[in-house]
Amino acid sequence: MKKFFSVKDVSSVADVVQEALALKAAPYDNQDLGKHKTLGLVFLNPSLRTRLSTQKAAMNLGMNVMVMNMDKDGWALETQDGVVMNGSTVEHIREAAAVMGEYCDILGLRSFPKLKDREEDYSEDLFNKFIKYCGVPVVSLESATRHPLQSLTDIITITEHKKTAKPKVVLAWAPHVKALPQAVPNSFAEWMCKAQEEGLVEFTIAQPMGYELSKDFTKGATISTNLNESLKDADFVYVKNWSSYQEYGEVYTVDEDWMMDNEKLSLTNDAKVMHCLPVRRDLELSSEILDGPNSLVIKEASNRVWAAQVVLKRMLEDLV
Ligand code: CP
User: Fold this and answer.
1) Whose CB among 106, 108, 188, 318 lies 3.0–4.6 Å from 141's, allowing a Cys bridge?
2) Around Cβ 152, how many Cβ atoms within 10 Å?
3) 130 near 92, Cβ under 8 Å?
């Protein structure tokens, strides 16, 4: 594996999940694979889970890890070609990525969208330039449009906790006070659509009118604006806020109550409730659910290690 950016970078969801679960059962079996290899994690935005779980995964594989908080500690990056750098940017991505590639065998990059210009964000220009100029395998730690390590974690968690062969999974929009990217729901949707193609899940998206995701990520999903109807027979509910894709980055007032609570949970098949975290308590998801027996959020976050470890393992195997 040379790149982990989307579901297209794995040939079989079922296979990568089984490999991740085998690593969970025997975390230190591949300690020699990463010996004398260095992982560099580059953050342009904050992180708790992605940062720590990917470091832990790399250490389980015997790798050395370096973390660069580019937003705080690095030079201001220029990403456009042909500009005279007489403004606030100090270093071009051509040199910055190439230099980091000299120090590292594998690089990870987190780069959020600006949510101003849809075309610019969805072109993934910065991410693609980083891949092009660094010259080593790159794992996405969340880009403008996707969060694949989170989505792989989510299907691992669903596989572990499912009670039927083909559980019903509902991605449910939830309220928030800020305009958030579509990266997590886009990514979850594309992984669930592929899992559905493989016969692993039945997938529904419930969101208010105006919050439809790009069709590029939702092919095959059942899409509804009726949350209560969608929750019927659900085995897993994946709660997440996102801003509008159509009116890019906008947040509309929603009249109905979209926060997941025990009343809505009672409509489901005793569903397990998931969220990528961080979560705004009693805004996106009720405390009674988060602190109750149906919440999977901590187990889900714990599984971030095995998603990162299987990806790094596949990359290391292709280095040698
Ligand atoms: N879910 C997730 O990516 O968490 P962090 O933003 O804390 O890494």
Assistant:
1) 108
2) 26
3) no
Distance between CA atoms of residues 313 and 185, nearest Å:
26
Give the tens place of pLDDT for each residue, 72-100.
Answer: 999 999 999 999 999 999 999 999 999 99
**What does residue 162 show for φ and ψ, rounded to 5 degrees?**
-70, 145
CB of 275 sitting under 6 A from ligand 1: no
Ligand 1 mutation pick, 44, 67, 277, max ligand atoms within 8 A of CB: 277
276, 279, 296: which to mutate for ligand 1, most atoms within 8 A of CB? 276
Which residue ranges make up the annotated binding site for carbamoyl phosphate?
47-50, 75, 110, 147-150, 276-277, 304
CA of 141 to the centre of ligand 1 (A): 9
- Whether the CB of 70 sits within 6 Å of ligand 1: no
In short, whether 303's Cβ falls inside 6 Å of ligand 1 is: no
Indicate whether this model's pTM tops 0.85. Answer: yes
pLDDT at 126: 96
- Give pLDDT < 50 ranges for the chain: none
* Ligand 1 atom with minimal separation from the 276 CA: 1
| Per-residue tokens: 190 | 């594309």
**Closest C-alpha among 135, 139, 120 to residue 61:** 139
Instruction: Tell me what pLDDT residue 256 has.
Output: 84
Question: Running DSSP on this structure, what letter comes out for residue 281?
Answer: B
Predicted confidence at residue 320, as pLDDT, reads: 60
Measured in Å, residue 179 CA sits from the centre of ligand 1 at: 16
The alpha carbon of residue 267 and the mean position of all alpha carbons in its chain are separated, in whole angstroms, by 27
180-203 confidence digits (pLDDT tens): 999 999 999 999 999 999 999 999
CA distance 60 to 63: 7
What pLDDT does 248 receive? Answer: 98
